[in-house]
Each structure stands twice: as C-alpha cells, then as structure tokens.
Design a protein that fits this description.
This protein is an alpha/beta fold. It has 14 helices and eleven strands. The protein has a seven-stranded mixed beta sheet with strand order 7-6-5-8-9-11-10. Strands 2-1-3-4 form a four-stranded mixed beta sheet. 46% of the residues are buried. It comes from Methylobacillus methanolivorans. One of its GO terms (molecular function) is methyltransferase activity. Its EC number is 2.1.1.-.
C-alpha cells in the first residue's frame, strides 16, 4: 500500500490536469470523465507518478505498471504537462565512453533487435511497400500510401537518377526505394541492410520480378562495402541515426570513397533541435536506448553538415521535413491501434506497448519542434572543385 504522503504528492502534481488516477478500483486523483485515465497495476509506479519524467512514464507503461486509457495525442499532451518540460532542451552532458556501442557485432545485434521483430507486424501498419521512414505530404491531404510513393519519388528527383546509373541505398529496409528507382528510373541498384528479415523480403521480391540483373540486396555493414565498387548516386534513408556521433566522419568518408566524381548523395535522417543536444531529455533518450533503438544517437544538423563537408562532400540542398514526420507517425499509430489484436498475437503486449508509446511520443516530438528530419543532398566535385548541378530546383518540382 502507498503512503498518504505519496498520494498527496500525486494529487498535487495532477491538479488541474485532465486525468484520473485509480488503484484497485479507488480513484486517487482527478475526475472520472477525464480525457486520460491512469490505472495503477503495480505499486512501483507510484514513485514515478510522484516525481514524473517522460522516460519514466513510458517505462512504467511498457513494463505494465500502469494502463493508459485515452487517445494517444491526449496521453502525450498530458505527459508533457505533467512533467512540465521541453524535452528538446537537453545539453550534451551524457558523454558516452562506451566505444563498443558501434562495433560491427553490436550494430548488427541492435538492428536485429528493432527490425527483425516480424515482417508481418510491420506490414500491419506501414504502407504496402513497408517504407519505414518519413513520408512526403506534398499537399497535406494524401493517404499514407500516396505520401510514401511521393517521398520515394522526391528522393529520386533530388538525386536526378538516370537510366543505367549505379545506385546504392545504405540501409534499404524492405526495399521500397531501390524497387521504385529500378522500376521508374531505370537504374541498376544495390541495397544493403543488417536485418535478416528485410534482406529475405527484398530478395523474394527480386526473385518474383526476375530483376537479378537490375537489383541486388546484400546483408552487409556499410563499412564492409568494397571501395573498388563505386556508384553514381547514393541514398541513406533513416539509417545514419544508427551510425553514432563518433562515427559520422567515418561514415561520410566511406560514402565519399564509394561515390563517383560528379555523383550525388542524399542523407535523410532525424536530427536534434537543441544545438548541443545528444538526444531528447527527461529520460526519453534512455528509454529509447533500452527499449526501442539500442545504440541510436542524434546530433544537430549543423554537426552533420560539418562532418559531411570535412569528408570532401559539398552540401547542395537541405530540407527539413519535420511536419511530415509528425503526420506520418500519427498515421502509423492509428493503423497500429486499429490492428491491436493482431499485433498482440504476433509480438505480445510488452512490444506492442513499446511501439505504440514510442511512435506516439515521436509524433508529439516532431509536432512540437523537439526533433527535426533533414534531407541533405551533397555532391562530389572533381579535382578542380567543379560539380555540375542545376541552378534551380525545377528538377525536383517538375
């Protein structure tokens, strides 16, 4: 049983918020008709409720210490108001000395943890191509399927893909981009991934289409790509968050060596908003590292630009798709919740809760400018510094 002092702390911290808290059928705080209901299932959560953090609340939900009833948007809004924080304002105080976070073995294990949950599980709530990255809502009224197709085309246009060009997709996921590029732009493509499930899925699609001479998928770390094999265009979509801040120079150096002179690369990834941030604060980064993306690290776009340019690549275009990712994530959450029973049968209650709270929390973070999503296009000039690139963006918005 909890103490009267603890109950008093919870009641005080929840004053004026649209929430009710119940324990064993007894309401501890709030109104019965509140938008959000917190049902305490384990007394462990009571200390979290008395001194809440966003990461602590997410952990309590995933561990089953509480049930959260209400719309995901209302739950996240309550969480911010309850904790009274701006989670983007996190100074870089967590100096990570664990050099082994991004060895090849550890990175492979981390990718398998997140992406090899179940292909069918991802198929429940992603679009039909299983594109697991920010969609592009050109007008704002597109379906998820339409917005993901527009995103794939947006990338291909930015890279100015042409028939016969060699195209590399680092972290190809379930193959959406490479398949689109081969079918609509006539490139010869290579996709690499560390996920066994993704590799098997793309390989089966290649066999179904008979595209062995046009598309290859490899189960490979980007660091192991042979540099005798170069490419005209390179894309990396939703992958560099796994690289690690200390490895960004190595990552862009590798891309520089793989890219033909005059070629283009597009890096699409999540960045922090606070300049000195190493991730979201108030316990969120620690929650994500433990439950969602082990080894994932964020940095500000200025640091990405600096490392990219130091590697010899010339930044040409940068676009922040922050509002697009919030919209994408909310659609994923809605689709996941609509398939709750099927998801539970596939992956169980705990993992269902991880994906639900992680995606809803990420949507809220993008909506409130705690996170950004940048597409950066860069090129590899020749020895005289010459790079043939258009004077305007008409090639993207034709």
């Amino acid at each position: 049983m909890f103490s009267a002092l603890l109950q008093s702390q919870i009641q005080k911290s929840l004053t004026g918020l649209p929430v009710s808290v119940s324990w064993n059928g007894e309401r501890l705080a709030g109104d019965a008709d509140a938008k959000v209901a917190i049902l305490v299932k384990d007394a462990k959560v009571l200390t979290v409720l008395a001194k809440p953090t966003l990461g602590g609340l997410a952990r309590a939900y995933v561990e089953g210490w509480v049930d959260l009833q209400g719309k995901a948007q209302d739950i996240l809004a309550l969480g911010q108001a309850y904790c009274g924080v701006d989670a983007s304002d996190d100074a870089d105080t967590r100096k990570d000395w664990r050099w082994w976070r991004h060895t090849r073995t550890r990175d492979r294990r981390n990718i398998n943890y997140h992406y090899d949950v179940s292909n069918d599980f991802y198929g429940l709530w992603l679009d039909k191509r299983r594109v697991y990255s920010c969609a592009y809502f050109a007008n704002g009224d597109e379906t998820l399927e339409q917005a993901q197709e527009k995103k794939l085309d947006h990338i291909c246009r930015k890279l100015m893909l042409k028939p016969g060009e060699r195209f590399l997709d680092i972290g190809c996921g379930w193959g959406g981009l490479v398949l689109h590029a081969v079918e609509h732009y006539g490139v010869k493509a290579v996709g690499i991934t560390l996920s066994d499930n993704q590799h098997a899925h793309v390989q089966s699609l290649i066999e179904q289409r008979g595209w062995h001479d046009r598309l290859e998928v490899r189960l490979m770390d980007y660091r192991d790509l042979p540099e005798s094999e170069t490419f005209d265009k390179i894309a990396s979509v939703g992958m560099f968050e796994h690289v690690g801040k200390k490895n960004l120079r190595l990552y862009f150096d590798k891309i520089y060596r793989l890219l033909n002179t005059g070629g283009l690369v597009m890096n699409h990834g999540i960045t922090s908003v606070a300049l000195k941030s190493s991730g979201l604060g108030n316990g969120i980064s620690e929650f994500i590292d433990q439950y969602v993306f082990p080894g994932g690290e964020l940095t500000h776009v200025s640091h990405v630009m600096a490392e990219l340019a130091t590697s010899g690549l010339e930044p040409l275009d940068a676009e922040n798709l922050r509002p697009h990712y919030g919209k994408t994530l909310w659609q994923w959450v809605d689709r996941l919740e609509a398939h709750r029973e099927q998801a539970l049968a596939m992956i169980g209650e705990s993992k269902y809760r991880i994906w639900r709270i992680y995606m809803a929390g990420s949507a809220y973070a993008f909506d409130h400018n705690w996170l950004a999503l940048f597409q950066i296009v860069a090129g590899k000039p020749d020895a005289q510094g010459v790079l043939n690139y258009p004077y305007n963006r008409s090639h993207i918005y034709r």
